[in-house]
Specification:
The complex is a heterotrimer of chains A (about 525), B (about 325) and C (about 325). Chain B has about 325 residues and is an all-alpha fold. Helix content of chain B is about 70%, strand content about 0%. Helix content of chain C is about 75%, strand content about 0%. Chain C is globular and about 85 Å long. The termini of chain C are close together. The chains are: A alpha+beta (about 525), B mainly alpha (about 325), C mainly alpha (about 325).
Chain lengths: ~525, ~325, ~325
């Protein structure tokens, strides 16, 4: 009998020793990421939230892909650091014709793609035509999610000479130049697209500071520095992007020193890291807004007093401070302060349940009402959807409005939300928007113009105010920026008074990095910029 | 949920690795089948089993607490208090602390028991019902029915269960009801195979043969002679499966496909609480313990049941 | 014997066909439009229509199925909508990682399960037996996604014994690294199955120990260890093997959660993302692949089982 036990113990011992010796080798310890590797190269390891889906700049539609891919490319113009003002990139300078229909870009010379081919006007034309011209021989090499958005106003592109390219628009469109700084306007190597076809998305070639070393699906994307970069050689030799889906795992990897940089830390953990003081926390107010849309075409939400009452009933400050722990900035308008044209004078509704009850009574709902609240389980820019929904639900219950929360998985959610009002039985739902080109039009017109009801656009609250529509439309075709600011400021006042949404916050982008990383900058567009980054 | 394991007794009794083990059982089973009133005997035997009685008492307490939740002096499980969120156990007014929205954890735990235990039992119930029907038809009528049903069962079994559940939830939308449907569909093949195995054995036995020769209709035979004899292994399997279903529901909610807020449900509390494991581990620890107690008590009861219902153990 | 295997192989065809029909209908009949998910809410109606046409999603569902299955039969599994890669190489690449994780877990579950089961049976109805059974139940009850993070924090972060996640350190490979990275996820995944196998082993040991011939052996004065090893263990093994076979299926599926927690580059994460993005060709491919693997594993288990138990006939 004893011997049986001995035997079992021995087996366990063997296993323990086996696991023990594999883990007791300090020289190959677990602290293997980041810093300098054996060859003395400087390496940065970045933890992404999910696997990039494509490294083809023209096909990117999510943050994880753009973060891993955008350092491979350049555009004709680019956003300045930490702002949405423009500066030259691949184009040296540009002219806009007086009628606003003809854009001429004069390109920098002597720049080559990573594959050695020359960057010229043909490459620019190729990069745009590939996306917008269904007849283009390489149009079938991908799905171009942002082509309509970025190049919608473009009529055609013309190569004037080797280093001059002209873009003709169908009608004047004030924000167009900003579009040319977006990821879909990246210039790709025509030779590489011809060579790889559909597999270009896994073999990207651009002119940027980093080039692809390799991509092991599910494991890592490795970029090497481009020693011929036209703006100077980057200081970091290699960047490794690792997708780590679970927030807690990603955080543990950072704390173990295996990652240099991570995004999307849970607000409570962020607070803990801040208190600990061992990491750099880089925050950047983003081009983002989070709201709950009320169905402006449906009882009782078609009553302005009801919408205002709902806004008064919610303690937005508590949600931002306690749940989001300051990872969001309380909004006073749908337009974030990082975008020009933001009106600092308008005010969000303060927390005042008494006022809410009074307004509800005036609107004929002294005892409140019941409504359904659609909430996604997760989603890009949605922050903490279910927890925030539960907080809103609890606040509204206090003034008699009983919400039934219905959560949906993101794929089904999009399907359910963006339908014409006639087909939609929606009461309230959550949504968020991440700006693309830093123009106020990209928020106010798209989200709140009466012309933009789904499926034409993104006005998911079915809000319509004729005066607002008129202002937004005029601002679209006006090229005088000061005049546009005026128009947008007035529109914001009207919108906040109408209260089509519960507008809650502008999410801050937060990156937590090891202290040894220096000079890392987060851009409001959400893209990482590594060309100046160094490690101590 | 990953441990998605149908527990032992089920596997053991399932043994539809056709022929051999069934043959082994035949003699002992036929002795018992003819004895009537085995349930009363079993109940008496069970009362002598200390472990099973402990399990029974434990489960009774848990169920009583859940049932009495509305009359117990508890705080509103859905009342949020954002300033006092994630407070540790022992905080004044909150014996077990508070969760991510400042809701009282003790209250949510007790109210959550109502839902979780309900989910476990109902999910098992659905699986049991459909599994039994399919198993009876396949085993009793054999031939065509057997082939078709068993192929369907094979398809369900070959389909990775997490995926089956996810797909059902993606199709129906997340929510407690749909989670329940999804996890019970996953359970159907197991019950179907247990029942089919027993049915195949009993339909060939003398007493059934005799009934058939006397012209009794199929319905009568199935419900009066075959089904009652299939029950003991089923009951054991089901009792052990309830905990599994609660864990499976919890896994679904980890994948973001669980119950709707603000509903308190142990699985959801566990997976949501995991997000706060570094700052407030108690939020997920307590629901985990609650699930453990239920699984423990059901296992003790299940073991006891197996001992008294299985004729092979003396 | 060969005939039996052949027969079983043929019987797999309708099952796999059923699996493909089931996955196809679930994916295509559930709400959610891959075009909308790929292009995002910012896309225009025309480009959505265009993409649906490109993907062949505008055809009737049965036609899409016929197109898909006939392509699969000639080896063309299509291209992932989301990842824009050929499906089959992608699956094969990722399945390897899942297989390694699953195999390691089976090994752990089998070894520990049987050892604990035998100990419990040898000390049946004593304190040791009860204690082991409680420990086993705890193992059964801890959800992997919860156990996983605890192990990561304890052994990865605090003690720095083992790596926290992934399969290799960034930019490296190697057997030693693989084993180090494998330990925590394999423990997490094997816990549940190990518990089931332990209970199974214990109870089938107990059953055999109470059989008449064992009693006879005792009566003849054969020493206990000999009884346990020579007579009972061998017989107890048969049902254990069965359970092992069934657990393989569960482990393969349960690996999904472990892979997410440990960011193990296996098929599980690929599948979840595929489902959420309605990546039809990818999900259909994965299910077909996994289902085939599952039925084949079970066939192999049956054959092993038949070898161990001569009473089974190949009819």
């Amino acid at each position: 009998m004893k011997k049986i036990l001995m035997l079992a113990m021995a087996m366990m011992l063997v296993l323990t020793v086996f696991t023990g010796c594999t883990s007791s080798d300090p020289s190959t310890g677990t602290n293997s990421g980041g810093g300098e590797n054996q060859q003395g190269n400087k390496v940065i390891v970045v933890g992404l939230q999910a696997e990039p889906t494509s490294l083809d700049a023209h096909q990117i539609s999510d943050y994880n892909s753009s973060r891993a891919a955008m350092e491979i490319y350049d555009q004709l113009v680019q956003f300045k650091d930490e702002s949405t003002e423009l500066e030259p990139d691949l184009a040296e300078k540009w002219d806009v014709s007086d009628d606003g229909l003809e854009y001429t870009f004069y390109l920098k010379q002597g720049i080559t793609f990573h594959d050695g081919t020359t960057f010229n006007a043909e490459a620019v034309k190729f990069s745009i035509d590939r996306q917008i011209d269904p007849e283009h021989p390489y149009h079938d090499t991908g799905q171009f999610a942002y082509a309509d958005f970025t190049f919608g106003p473009v009529d055609h592109v013309e190569v004037a000479d080797e280093y001059t390219v002209k873009i003709y628009l169908k009608e004047p469109f004030a924000p167009f130049l900003s579009n040319m700084a977006m990821h879909a306007a990246s210039i790709v190597s025509p030779a590489a697209v011809e060579k790889y076809g559909k597999d270009f998305s896994r073999n990207p070639v651009g002119t940027g500071p980093y080039k692809l070393n390799h991509w092991s699906p599910g494991v890592e994307v490795v970029l090497d520095k481009n020693p011929d970069y036209f703006k100077g050689v980057p200081k970091i030799d290699q960047i490794i992007f690792k997708p780590i889906v679970d927030d807690q795992t990603r955080l543990a990897e950072l704390e173990a020193g295996n990652l240099d940089l991570i995004v999307n830390v849970m607000p409570d953990d962020l607070q803990r890291l801040k208190d600990g003081g061992a990491y750099q926390i880089i925050e950047q107010a983003g081009m983002h807004v989070w709201w709950t849309a009320l169905n402006n075409q449906k009882e009782p939400f078609n009553n302005k007093k009801v919408r205002q009452a709902i806004n008064y009933a919610i303690n937005k400050e508590a949600i931002v401070n306690e749940i989001l722990k300051g990872t969001g900035e309380l909004a006073n308008s749908p337009l974030p302060p990082t975008v020009w044209g933001h009106n600092p004078k308008v005010k969000n509704y303060e927390y005042n349940p008494e006022k809410a009850k009074q307004l509800l009574a005036e609107a004929g709902y002294p005892d409140g009402f019941e409504a359904t609240y659609w909430v996604p389980e997760s989603g890009s820019g949605m922050q903490q959807p279910t927890i925030m929904a539960a907080a809103i639900q609890a606040d509204l219950a206090k003034v008699g409005i009983q919400l039934k929360i219905q959560t949906l998985e993101w794929g089904s959610y999009l399907d359910k939300v963006f339908v014409p009002p006639a087909e939609n039985d929606m009461d309230m739902h959550q949504m968020s928007w991440i700006g693309d080109n830093g123009d106020p039009d990209n928020f106010l017109y798209i989200l709140l113009s009466g012309e933009q009801w789904p499926t034409a656009g993104f006005n998911d609250a079915y809000y319509k105010n004729d005066r607002v529509d008129q202002l937004l439309k005029e601002a679209r075709v006006t090229s005088d920026k000061a005049r546009r600011v005026q128009l947008y400021e007035e529109a914001q006042e009207l919108i906040m008074d109408d209260a089509p949404w519960i507008v809650l916050d502008h999410e801050k982008q937060v990156v937590v990095a090891q202290n040894r990383v220096s000079n890392f900058k987060l851009h409001p567009t959400g893209v990482f910029r590594f060309s100046d980054v160094d490690i101590k | 949920m990953g441990n998605i394991n149908r527990d032992l007794a089920k596997n053991e009794l399932l043994d539809s690795r056709e022929t051999s083990s069934l043959e082994m059982k035949n003699d002992s089973l036929s002795q018992k089948v003819k004895k009537d009133g085995p349930w009363r005997v079993a109940a008496k035997k069970m009362m002598r089993d200390k472990a099973a009685v402990t399990g029974l008492i434990l489960l009774t307490i848990i169920i009583l607490l859940s049932v009495l939740a509305p009359v117990l002096p508890l705080q509103d499980p859905e009342e949020t208090d954002l300033v006092n969120r994630l407070k540790p156990p022992g905080t004044e007014g909150h014996i077990l602390g508070t969760d991510e929205l400042g809701r009282d954890l003790l209250s949510r735990l007790i109210w959550g028991g109502r839902i979780s235990i309900f989910v476990g039992f109902v999910a098992v119930g659905i699986a049991l019902l459909f599994g039994t029907i399919l198993g009876l038809i396949a085993g009793y009528f054999k031939r065509f029915f057997d082939t078709v049903i068993m192929r369907i069962i094979d398809v369900l079994m070959a389909f990775p269960y997490v995926l089956l559940a996810i797909a059902i939830i993606a199709a129906l939308g997340p929510g407690l009801m749909n989670t329940m449907i999804a996890i019970s569909v996953v359970g159907i093949p197991y019950y179907a195979r247990i029942v089919r195995g027993s049915t195949l054995t009993f339909r060939e036995m003398e007493f059934v043969m005799a009934e058939r020769a006397m012209g009794a209709n199929h319905f009568h035979i199935i419900f009066h002679h075959i089904l009652p004899n299939c029950l003991p292994p089923l009951i054991v399997a089901a009792s052990l499966d309830v905990g599994w279903m609660i864990l499976a529901a919890s896994g679904m909610s980890f994948l973001g496909l669980g119950a709707q807020p603000p509903l308190a449900e142990w699985g959801v509390m566990l997976s949501e609480g995991r997000k706060f494991i570094r700052v407030a581990p108690h939020v997920s620890l307590f629901p985990g313990l609650a699930i453990f107690l239920v699984v423990l008590s059901l296992n003790l009861i299940g073991d006891g049941l197996r001992d008294v219902l299985d004729p092979r153990t003396k | 014997m060969l005939l039996y295997v052949l027969k079983r192989l043929i019987a797999l065809i309708p099952v796999l066909l059923g699996v493909t029909i089931l996955v196809f209908s679930i994916m295509h009949l559930s709400p959610g439009d891959p075009a909308k998910i790929i292009l995002g809410p910012k896309a225009t109606e025309e480009s959505l229509m265009q993409l649906r046409a490109d993907l062949g999603l505008d055809l009737p569902v049965y036609k899409q199925y016929i197109n898909w299955i006939s392509n699969v039969l000639v080896g063309d599994w299509g291209r992932s909508i989301q990842l824009k890669m050929e499906v089959l190489p992608l699956i094969i690449d990722r399945f390897g990682a899942t297989l390694i994780l699953t195999a390691a877990s089976i090994l752990l579950a089998g070894v520990f399960g049987i050892v604990f089961g035998v100990i419990a049976a040898a000390y049946r109805y004593t304190f040791i037996d009860r204690l082991l059974m409680i420990l086993i139940l705890i193992g059964f009850c801890i959800p992997v996604f919860w156990l996983g993070i605890l192990l990561q924090i304890e052994f990865g972060l605090k003690r720095e014994w083992l790596p926290i996640s992934g399969m290799y350190p960034p930019g490296q490979t190697g057997m030693l690294e693989l084993i180090k990275h494998l330990i925590l996820p394999a423990i997490s995944l094997s816990m549940g199955s190990g518990a089931v196998i332990a209970r199974m082993t214990r109870s089938s040991m107990l059953e055999v120990l109470e059989q008449d011939y064992i009693r006879t052996a005792y009566a003849k004065g054969i020493r206990e260890k000999k009884v346990i090893f020579k007579h009972s263990l061998k017989n107890a093994f048969i049902p254990v093997i069965t359970v092992l076979g069934m657990q393989i299926g569960f482990l393969l599926a349960g690996a999904v959660l472990v892979e997410i927690v440990f960011s193990w580059p296996g098929i599980g994460t690929l599948m979840i993302n595929g489902i959420l993005a309605r990546d039809f060709p990818l999900v259909q491919g994965i299910i077909l692949f996994v289902a085939t693997a599952y039925v084949l594993v079970n066939l192999i288990v049956d054959i092993i089982y038949a070898f161990l138990d001569p009473r089974i006939s190949y009819e």
